[in-house]
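pinging the channel bc i need a second pair of eyes. not urgent but kinda urgent?? the chain im working w is below, pasted from the shared doc
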Amino acid sequence: MTQTSEVEALKKHLEKNPTVMLESLPEAGSLSMAERIECLPVSLWERIDGKHYLEVLEEIATWGKVTLIVHTPDMVLEFSGPFPPGKLGHGYYNLGGSTGLHGHLRPENCGAVYLIKRPFMGKASASVQFMNLAGETLFKVYLGRDESREIFPHQIDAFDALGRKYARGTP
């Protein structure tokens, strides 16, 4: 199957079932995660150029409780809590804090950031997904939820503001 036919087959599949886990699609074949996302109906996603990586992270650090997910073929690792602010140093964006989430990110390796809104497990879902230069997932940040499992309204507003600020004119 050619890449063009893989894209067309996946677009048709996702048009009918946009809630499936993109990581588990046999129809995707050799497509990168970024290419899979772009097969979703265009009303469900927006693309931000990776050059805005740090600005997006700084915005997310103001949102409060979110869920960070790292999904590899071997695991799905989740952290719920505030995304820490960071600062540049020694070639990394260093996430602050001595407890909770912390680490060191390479900003120049981010090729794109996707804002995705789609249903998942019967609920509204919104995530900011960071892709490397090869179009594979670095990590995902899902908007937080209250006790009723509803997305925090202020986070939806902030998420939408990211799209207005950085993603207009794309895909």
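so The helical segments are 3-16, 33-37, 53-60, 153-167. and Residues 44-167 form a domain with the Heme iron utilization protein-like fold fold (CATH 3.40.1570.10). — does that match what u expected or am i reading it wrong
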